[in-house]
């Protein structure tokens, strides 16, 4: 699913069991021109998401019935939400593992209390990133992989491999410069951008997940430095 070029056409699903937070987010998102739907828990979110078709999902972590981590996993298991941006909202940063979020398929996380202006800036960064990505129209064929950068598709010996957006961007970025070694901070800047705050270990989590899907030999770890794509 590819969001349309206009930010006004973007659909955002807010999932949080705190009605005050939902009201705050809905007000600010609609003021910016986004289409908004909301759900009070993960179970309801899984009902609303398919017919609504969100481009971005703001997902609370601690919720009744079904928490954010399990909700994220179930969303990612649906083909139509493999490329949807999922951003976690958490008030328990001291207890919450970012690795667990990214391992479940999250693109980002935001700590509560939420600052509306900062959140709008973060969302605008994702909109801009979509525009930049959609402007690229090339296919990379390397080491048995065909990477379609416009279709967000990876093929290995004719078999299509589905990757969430950030995993795809990481693989495509490394494959575009085979044998060049990229440090974690450089990968964070190029894949996540300066407008998004994530830790360096996020790269490690995404590399591991890409390896699980396309094979260990495509991305090589350079100890103490970072990663490179192995074209041999």
TrEMBL record:
Keywords: DNA-binding, Phosphoprotein, Transcription, Transcription regulation, Two-component regulatory system. One of its GO terms (cellular component) is protein-DNA complex. The modification 4-aspartylphosphate is found at residue 60. The keyword Transcription regulation applies. It holds the Pfam family Response_reg. Residues 137-231 bind DNA. PROSITE patterns: OMPR_PHOB, RESPONSE_REGULATORY. Residues 11-127 form the Response regulatory domain. SMART domains: REC (SM00448), Trans_reg_C (SM00862). Residues 137-231 form the OmpR/PhoB-type domain. One of its GO terms (molecular function) is phosphorelay response regulator activity. GO terms for biological process: regulation of DNA-templated transcription. This protein is a positive regulator for the phosphate regulon. Transcription of this operon is positively regulated by PhoB and PhoR when phosphate is limited. This is Phosphate regulon transcriptional regulatory protein PhoB. It comes from Hymenobacter elongatus.
